Amino acid sequence: MERFRRTVEHSAFGVCAWLGDKMGIPRARVRTYFIYLSCLSLGSSLLFYFFAAFWLNVRNYMREGRRQMGW
Description:
Blueprint: H1 2-11, H2 15-23, H3 27-40, H4 45-69
């Protein structure tokens, strides 16, 4: 079950997990708040989620590029 949860979190870009880790809040609570916020704001928080997912992926690609170049 734990492996399945990690796979789902990773495939969902890990934005809620990243926010929870940075803010010191449990990941489940961040997800719950995100769901409530999405319902209340009629889905406009999805724009933030997609932007954050894009930014996290770009940052990871940049780090991988630096490692391969030896920086």
